[in-house]
Amino acid sequence: MPGAHRAWSLDALLLLVVVTWGANYSVIKHAFNDIPPQPFNAVRVSIASVVYLVSIGVARRRAQSGGRSVPSAFYTSGRLTSRDWRDLLWLGLIGHAAYQACFVAGVNTTSVSNAALIIGSTPVIVAIASAALGRERIGKLHWTGAAISAVSLYFLVGRGASLAGSTWRGDALILVSVLCWSAYSIGSMRLLERHSPLFVTGMTMTIGAVPYALAVLPQVIAVHWTTLPVWTIGSLVLSALLALNGAYLIWYMGVQALGAARTSMFSNLVPITAMTVAALWLGEPLSATKIACAAGILSGVVLTRLGGRSQ
After folding, report:
1. Rounded to the nearest 5°, which phi and psi values hold at 283?
2. Which terminus in the chain has less CB density within 10 A, N or C?
3. Residues contacting 225, CB < 8 A, separation 6+
4. What is the pTM of this model?
């Protein structure tokens, strides 16, 4: 059953992404005490872009040297068309530059509950858009899993959250970031049919990083980098390498293999990881209600994956 083994291996890698992204919230929140959010993020995205470009170059040289074969996740020989370049351009601007700017600004100006609730709508938005565009067939079991996860996520982080009042600007920015991420996830599927996740993710991130970094450059220059704690610099580098390089690559390997709708369901597990890390690291209480909601979200993801295999 090599196909089933590969599917479960990909599930395990996507769960590793969930852990990385969930823990990343606590890491960057701590770093924001020393660096403003936008300069931190601009440098983080720039580091990740350089790593991607180097990796793309290494993978291409190895594939063209006639030596060992390079896995399709890292290199494919498909020719870039003019449409491919147009797609890379708009995906980079929407899925990286706009997404990163709105997400960081939104988290900085709204509550954690509001942000988590809005971000939790991503799988539903991706599934509806994928079905409407005819990109994926969304079965009943998938919709059932999405509904269970959404309801559980609401009871986990949504009760008591207010989508009005003083946080409305942050709420709006988070919603825009969700729309950007959803558009990127769906829009990248055509490219991923012909090109490797490493190339698509790396090129779009680099394209998005250039205008983003230039826009934030005055803030980056204003930071006193030489006086920052070693922990803060280390967290910036690790966040780039793990949350943007490793996690993004695995995520879009999932989009390539499973589709945007089914892969996006794993994002519902990120609040669970963030909650667990906060309980272990920051000592925040872990109630029975939170555990029950976490179980509901996990059940929804499992139903979604089973639904994908049964079609």
Report:
1. 75, 20
2. N
3. 233
4. 0.79
